[in-house]
């Protein structure tokens, strides 16, 4: 069910205007994929406003998500209940008059504030014995094949079959905003390749970004490194390899990463949140996969190239581990830098115009 698909979720009561709250997963890539849930809800109830609970880290994403009325920015600690903060959040939610809450995470903690707020319908899968907190309990999550299936199924009527395709996530970034961002950072107007060398979990990190940067620079291309503060060290290695001709755009503000991915002509990324951002804004994206499965974790938007090693079949792949414990990381080491650079160059020169 993509943008041009004739198959849509059946519209329900068009007169229903009760707001809906989504409590999503807060990892960046998962948050981006959560926009599919928004789109399904808007097909089902076109006149019900949809809000997202969001962390301060992910908050900039909401500004570019069509169909989202507002983001409720509230940072809750990951490792404790923080009941005082939950009560204050519940007071905020109660004032907004939500009729339905979709609680995507299966944790007990994720359902506390919607319950304290008295939201009448609280939809979620069984998990951590949330009886009473989730009053529209769904079952069968483990039988659903992909993460997106588990999340978007909650936006359908209970028991409804999954569609053959889900609507893809969208991040709509105005071209005027990317132009201002380019000027503010002194980046000129040439097409650039954006590199996203970071990821959650060391095993998902392809280590040949410095070599790719050097090869792209030798071809006269602009190269940017995009990521969070944790990628500063990786960015410095890439800048050094590029002879100082690579721009380090890593930092603490996710909006900077969104705009960089929107402005780039091609993005090369590990399996990470920035890969999902680049795909959702419509930038041709090369996703490098080793320990994780593209079927399970690639963006619904589709990738310009799904890059995997092809030299030998590895029995351990995909292992889904955060640290490699077998085969000395061959699933990533056997992906050649010249191949990735050649592919990126071909993608860039075939783009119809500078982004």
Automatic annotation (TrEMBL):
The molecular function GO annotations come to: ADP-heptose-lipopolysaccharide heptosyltransferase activity
- GO biological process per UniProt: lipopolysaccharide core region biosynthetic process
Q: Which Pfam families match?
A: Glyco_transf_9
What catalytic activity does the UniProt entry give for this protein?
Answer: an L-alpha-D-Hep-(1->5)-[alpha-Kdo-(2->4)]-alpha-Kdo-(2->6)-lipid A + ADP-L-glycero-beta-D-manno-heptose = an L-alpha-D-Hep-(1->3)-L-alpha-D-Hep-(1->5)-[alpha-Kdo-(2->4)]-alpha-Kdo-(2->6)-lipid A + ADP + H(+)
The UniProt record lists the EC number as 2.4.99.24
UniProt cross-references to SUPFAM superfamilies, sorted A to Z? UDP-Glycosyltransferase/glycogen phosphorylase
Q: What InterPro entries does this protein's entry cite? A: Glyco_trans_9 (IPR002201), LPS_LOS_Heptosyltrfase (IPR051199), RfaF (IPR011910)
What keywords sit in the KW lines?
Glycosyltransferase, Transferase
Q: Name one GO cellular component term.
A: cytosol
Q: Return the similarity comment.
A: Belongs to the glycosyltransferase 9 family.
What is the name listed in the Swiss-Prot or TrEMBL entry for this protein? lipopolysaccharide heptosyltransferase II
Organism, by scientific name, is: Bradyrhizobium icense
The opening ranks of the lineage are: Bacteria, Pseudomonadati, Pseudomonadota, Alphaproteobacteria, Hyphomicrobiales
């Amino acid at each position: 069910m993509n943008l041009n698909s004739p198959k849509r979720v059946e519209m329900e009561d068009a007169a229903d205007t009760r707001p809906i709250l989504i409590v999503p997963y807060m990892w960046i890539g998962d948050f981006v994929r959560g926009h599919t849930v928004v789109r399904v809800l808007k097909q089902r109830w076109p006149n019900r406003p949809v809000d997202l609970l969001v962390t301060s880290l992910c908050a900039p994403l909401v500004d570019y998500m069509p169909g989202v009325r507002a983001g409720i920015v509230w940072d809750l600690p990951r490792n404790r209940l923080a009941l005082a903060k939950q009560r204050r959040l519940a007071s905020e939610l109660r004032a907004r008059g939500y009729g339905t809450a979709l609680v995507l995470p299966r944790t007990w903690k994720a359902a506390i504030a919607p319950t304290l707020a008295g939201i009448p319908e609280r939809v979620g899968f069984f998990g951590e014995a949330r009886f009473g907190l989730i009053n529209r309990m769904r079952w069968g999550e483990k039988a659903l094949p992909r993460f997106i299936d588990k999340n978007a199924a909650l936006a359908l009527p209970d028991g409804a079959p999954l569609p053959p395709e889900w609507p893809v996530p969208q991040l709509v970034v105005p071209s005027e905003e990317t132009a201002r961002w380019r000027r503010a950072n002194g980046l000129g107007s040439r097409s650039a390749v954006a590199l996203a060398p970071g990821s959650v979990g060391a095993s998902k990190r392809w280590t040949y970004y410095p070599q790719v940067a050097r090869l792209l620079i030798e071809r006269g291309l602009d190269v940017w490194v995009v990521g969070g503060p944790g990628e500063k060290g990786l960015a410095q290695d890439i800048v050094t390899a590029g002879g100082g001709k690579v721009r380090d755009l890593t930092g603490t503000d996710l909006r900077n990463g969104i705009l960089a991915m929107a402005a780039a002509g091609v993005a090369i990324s590990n399996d990470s949140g920035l890969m999902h951002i680049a795909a959702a804004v419509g930038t041709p994206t090369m996703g490098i996969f080793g320990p994780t499965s593209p079927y399970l974790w690639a963006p619904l938007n589709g990738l310009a190239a799904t890059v995997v090693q092809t030299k030998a079949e590895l029995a351990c792949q995909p292992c889904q581990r955060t640290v490699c414990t077998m085969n000395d990381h061959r699933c990533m080491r056997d992906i050649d830098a010249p191949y990735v650079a050649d592919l990126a160059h071909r993608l860039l020169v075939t783009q119809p115009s500078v982004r």
